Amino acid sequence: MSERTAYVNGEFLPESRASVSIYDRGFLSGLGVFERTRTFGGEIFQLDRHIARLYRSLKAVRLDAGLTAEEMHETTVELVKQNKGLLGADEDYFVGHYVTRGPDKAGRATVVILCEPIGFDKFAHHYICGGHVITTHIRAIPTQVWDPKIKSTSRMHLWLAEQQAQLVDPEAYALLLTLDGNVTELTAANFWIVRNGTLVTAPVQTILSGVTRGAVLEIAQHLDIPVEETNFQLYDIMNADEAFMTTTSRCVLPLTRINGNAIGEGKPGPMVGRLQKGWTEVFGQDFVVQALKHIDKDKVPEGEAVPL
Amino acid sequence: MSERTAYVNGEFLPESRASVSIYDRGFLSGLGVFERTRTFGGEIFQLDRHIARLYRSLKAVRLDAGLTAEEMHETTVELVKQNKGLLGADEDYFVGHYVTRGPDKAGRATVVILCEPIGFDKFAHHYICGGHVITTHIRAIPTQVWDPKIKSTSRMHLWLAEQQAQLVDPEAYALLLTLDGNVTELTAANFWIVRNGTLVTAPVQTILSGVTRGAVLEIAQHLDIPVEETNFQLYDIMNADEAFMTTTSRCVLPLTRINGNAIGEGKPGPMVGRLQKGWTEVFGQDFVVQALKHIDKDKVPEGEAVPL
Amino acid sequence: MSERTAYVNGEFLPESRASVSIYDRGFLSGLGVFERTRTFGGEIFQLDRHIARLYRSLKAVRLDAGLTAEEMHETTVELVKQNKGLLGADEDYFVGHYVTRGPDKAGRATVVILCEPIGFDKFAHHYICGGHVITTHIRAIPTQVWDPKIKSTSRMHLWLAEQQAQLVDPEAYALLLTLDGNVTELTAANFWIVRNGTLVTAPVQTILSGVTRGAVLEIAQHLDIPVEETNFQLYDIMNADEAFMTTTSRCVLPLTRINGNAIGEGKPGPMVGRLQKGWTEVFGQDFVVQALKHIDKDKVPEGEAVPL
Amino acid sequence: MSERTAYVNGEFLPESRASVSIYDRGFLSGLGVFERTRTFGGEIFQLDRHIARLYRSLKAVRLDAGLTAEEMHETTVELVKQNKGLLGADEDYFVGHYVTRGPDKAGRATVVILCEPIGFDKFAHHYICGGHVITTHIRAIPTQVWDPKIKSTSRMHLWLAEQQAQLVDPEAYALLLTLDGNVTELTAANFWIVRNGTLVTAPVQTILSGVTRGAVLEIAQHLDIPVEETNFQLYDIMNADEAFMTTTSRCVLPLTRINGNAIGEGKPGPMVGRLQKGWTEVFGQDFVVQALKHIDKDKVPEGEAVPL
Amino acid sequence: MSERTAYVNGEFLPESRASVSIYDRGFLSGLGVFERTRTFGGEIFQLDRHIARLYRSLKAVRLDAGLTAEEMHETTVELVKQNKGLLGADEDYFVGHYVTRGPDKAGRATVVILCEPIGFDKFAHHYICGGHVITTHIRAIPTQVWDPKIKSTSRMHLWLAEQQAQLVDPEAYALLLTLDGNVTELTAANFWIVRNGTLVTAPVQTILSGVTRGAVLEIAQHLDIPVEETNFQLYDIMNADEAFMTTTSRCVLPLTRINGNAIGEGKPGPMVGRLQKGWTEVFGQDFVVQALKHIDKDKVPEGEAVPL
Amino acid sequence: MSERTAYVNGEFLPESRASVSIYDRGFLSGLGVFERTRTFGGEIFQLDRHIARLYRSLKAVRLDAGLTAEEMHETTVELVKQNKGLLGADEDYFVGHYVTRGPDKAGRATVVILCEPIGFDKFAHHYICGGHVITTHIRAIPTQVWDPKIKSTSRMHLWLAEQQAQLVDPEAYALLLTLDGNVTELTAANFWIVRNGTLVTAPVQTILSGVTRGAVLEIAQHLDIPVEETNFQLYDIMNADEAFMTTTSRCVLPLTRINGNAIGEGKPGPMVGRLQKGWTEVFGQDFVVQALKHIDKDKVPEGEAVPL
User: Fold this and answer.
1) Surface of C (172-211) touching B: CB under 8 A
2) Selected residues 254-273 of chain C with any CB under 8 Å from a CB in chain A
3) Fold of B5-118
4) Is the pTM of this model over 0.95?
5) Sign of dihedral through CA atoms A83, A84, A86, A91?
6) I need a surface site. Which of A132, B41, C161, F98 has the fewest CB within 10 A?
């Protein structure tokens, strides 16, 4: 076998044939919900939590996947098993679940599960120099329109925010503020600052509560690091000691600039280091080492040493 | 030929094979814009205006379709030509244009054009008894998130509003209010009231300015009917003389109930009749006669006569 | 004595003669504040807390009742004493306090205290099948207009919300959201969800902090059940394990549907059961048993057993 | 006959016996709508317009008065006829219509019509020195809660605004701003400024469109005075040439101070004079002359001459 | 004389000695209002309008300048006379009026009038290639805080917006949106788009209504160009045919990019050309020719010809 | 030496010569940040905390003071040393730090440090009778415009709020509400209420977190007084047991009236007394005794005894 398979509505198909009808309401109207899990060494990480959240999203939009959570779990395991052999050295997968309303004529949801290699080269250098965060005029979706806790496939505003942020820096991460100006999250990651030894992150009311965010809460408890889940603003980022993002693929990735200014010392700080080490202790993977094996050296700023 | 064709990225394909990759960002993330035009007697109606609006949406989301507006026009004409023969008596097509970001690997947009028979039986009876409008807690997308003038394929909130409205009446049309409580539009149609002989509809700042809305503005000018494009509220609907919707498929369709209450006399009124006649005068089609040929008689309230 | 008496401005009058001038500013302009307490077995429950809250409302609207809190208390006790004999078996009273600005010419407040039999038949079946909660486009009064903590007799929006909710289900309870989309309260009750064994209810900033809500906080402490007073949204209700309301008459009443969807299992859950039992332990009344004696059997869904 | 009569639910009663049950939901919950018309020389002014607006309010809150508009009109005429003889020299009536939900047990609305002598002495001196307008922190009811076009008896916020304004000046008129800071109306009157010869007043979307406001629009047309119905702000009042209010009892009354500052010259200006004269031309009454006959001379600032 | 003079509180001083106390509340707290007028060929342009607006600002903040408008006018003329000789060839002045609360101990306002040479080299090249407009997360001051029509010296947000915009392009002009997402103005200029031959600019409710904006309204009337003063959004800029700014120093300057995208053809368009010519016709100055004499050739994009 | 000196851009100058250029952008545009520290017995109180906050403000507006925090500290100490001898008996200084953008031509910030005698006579009587708090229509700056945690010299809205509050009472303190109606702070002080033995104050998200506020948090911890940092509203002030302000000059000053109503008993309460005593215990100064030595006896209400 030389091609990855994907699960589409009951079938395991080679990706080149894995498609959905042009009449799928996921395609036509963004009517769907999704999850993105990852593997470590080919093993799926916290799949249960991702599937539980998928079913919360489904319930909130009144969509019936046609599979139970257990069936979704088993199908996922089977798909990863089929594709595991295609992973190169130090590679891993995003495992994506997409459930859409399907074509109106079908009268049932479309379910897609896919394995997509994580593009470590896109961000590995950020473990060394940190990422750049930009706020734009585009605001987070307010709960009066739909709840940001629904992981919806209608993501137009996130793309618009990325486009706008990348006018400043093509590698920037866009940070979304609420209509009221509070910090929420990056376009596909939770955002944290470190302030006087405390981790600070937005409360679950206005964000998608990430599974990786939950993992870091566990690590913080393990390491006895205090955490505040509270509203905060741009001022707090400008004056933070450190900042970082948590997301499925990057786990804990340092962010060292905000709107062109250095955060703290302007380089990855000790708290991020502690959390990265804590991750290895608690979950047994060293995601930084893995990512650095894929580093794109052209993206490392001059003068920065690559530790591996 | 016994199957309709669709245009997908340069090819005319039978619909059963017309599909998009599961990696298409239109499917995964709702990153796309679209239009829905209709035919009358198999001839496309005001295609230029729809294509112009499509290109305004594209510009606003910085997406390059890979085709010029002229090419899009020619391709559309060709597709309709291919499918025209499959139209039954008194049938017509929706002609849908969908342009999405495509799969990330493709590095170019996905362009789909499709011909979908209009389901007249779903709404033909509303020309006789009028439709029912329901307001819900779901609000229109505010411009701080993305501009409602972009005809985006990210439409989660519209679906949520429809679900909520249909708790009251399975045939209800959901009306979206702004965060400030002003009337905007139905989930896929512009909304109008008639007040003391004047047509009143929301201003273009907070709505998708419909092509059919434009057609009615032309008819109003032709018939010397005054029009106000202004913010109005639920109170004004409760106290309106008549109400109606304008949309590609239904053209001008009367709305006779708002949140369970009769609007005006609770039946299609004289102004709607004038506009429907005016349509025939100005554009040469009698859309009501056509739709009634497909009427689902089970949906006509008892005691109502079907004029045909 | 065969007719209940009410207290009106210093006099105890038979209810058929208990009236206020048409010039009363409570009648003309909704300028008043109120409380509704209940009796258990003819004994007034937590009267002090209701009167304390009444005087907080009076202070916030700068209205002088003309009676001290102590006099208000004594008068209430006397009124209930006068009416107690008219209670039927297993019946109890709402004890209502209404203080309005009075007629402008009077130059002093109108004070009314009344005993109204609780209509258990209207809701007793909800202890068995649970109530249905509906959110509508009508929003809670924001503090910029007047503070929702004032228990004002200006209640137009609550009536409008009930009318709208009852389009879906004539027995529905309307749930009010803030302008920002946060859950506040039902039209005359506090609203709670149960999430992973924790009771969750809106914070006192945006709601009228109910006396019964306080009673449940006491019970939760007694039973060691964790409580979060925090903002939450519709998503959280859709995904809650259970939900219930607290209000003077119903005490703790299960809510099993939200906008047409089942909450949790769609039937009264174990946490509601614990709280109802806890109420009996802490306060000595079994309000469910009492209410079920008045049940309207026509309202019990088929197949549900009535435990008494 | 020495006592005025009022109409209450089908009966004409002496006012001392005109009352409503303490169970009336108008009294308990502010669930009602109303109108206030006035007489000139004992003749009712523009009763049709007031009754039409009353029925629009009724429709918006889904309340059935139990009387047709025609019956309401006739009953009003009869009541005024009964009371006309009790008017003193140069006196006139407010004619109030109040329709509430009534007591729940009654199952029908309460209808009250009353004749209340206009207290000219409270405001007559303002025709000479002008009134004082104060803005406070209390905001107008937003349409998301209920529409300000409904003339509701739930008026708590208006009272709170008056109390706050009268901390500055016991005779002040409170001006309500929207949540967004736009000028709406006084607590029972429309508000206007004069700017470069143009009358400016808030648009009907955010205010109760007054019948007297309509009368002034007529006069302006008669006198060829340009009018702008547009949003404006406090800045515009601070820099206006003149300001005035329109309301049933006062018709056109000059306002000469805003938040302690003079408006224009700080005294009634020429445009107000033109409108007052225009009123006499168009409607045949000289309301200023009438009011000044009742002037409370203690309220006239020293040095101001009373013209009569 | 080799040094410019400035007017400070009654004295004409050489600029090197023109200073204000560190206790001036203008310096300590931004408590002041201002105007910036310009000269053409050393003659002051529309000074009366600037001084009238200055006095409107003063009135709105209740500040007494201690000089009448006439005295302010005469003093200004005198100052310009003193400084006119120091103008180089083709140079002109900004004439700034600043009135602050002064030091608390002084008990009277500080009045400063100054002549500052216009830095044509900073923007002259924009007449050739057009300026770049950027929207940021910083919003315009809302009228609930203070009215944007007050030309206040408290300008922190405008500076923050400029800093943020200049992350994208060091020469960018920052465009402020309202809290609701409507376009207002640039940090020191009004903003316009051209749409189908019509000039569109924000309504005076949410902006400082510029004197130059007024001049362009006059020109448009002279040239019979239609104008809409209406709310519009970013979508409208993305899809505009042209855009430009109006401001004291630059008069009418083309804007050719919005958030990195070309506006229209991406170069100064014909409408801007008409308005610039119209300016010369109506007001007799050719401001483009003047500015181009100072052009910084390093700032002209390669391949662009400089017309002079 | 008979005149105080101030530090201005590197020099210590007599105050009569301490000035800034009229071109300073602090003066022209309010582009600066500041701090106000005080001395006790001529010793600077918590200078480090004030300087740390100054540098957080500087960072948030991207302004480089040109001095390190250490240099700022030393310079301040030197300035106070120079001026200490000029303090009269029982007098003390405000020590103000002002850093502005400076004149554009200078290309560097202006730094001013000044010593201003505290005007104890302005407020000493409030320790006896308490101050009066007024809410107005002017709202606090929202974070979308700039963050209220930046201690900016752009303070126009604070002045407007004071002017409006002082229409009610010339000695009133203006209390700012957020756009949402939550209590924030006074124009130059934090605001607290006492409720059932707990101190309640606004959370740091919407206010400038005062250094004196921090001092009171320390005292509360020392005295074991519970504290809630939470949003609260006007209702809570109307019903509070006590209220007080904390600010550099007044430390802990009782507030006894809100919008004309007594707070609690309407006189300084026991909690304020405890905190004032606690201050002496923790920090060693008796600020009340000091202030009363400067009392303006004409401001003490009749019948109130002055304890010293």
Assistant:
1) 177, 179, 181
2) 261
3) D-amino Acid Aminotransferase; Chain A, domain 1 (3.30.470)
4) yes
5) positive
6) B41
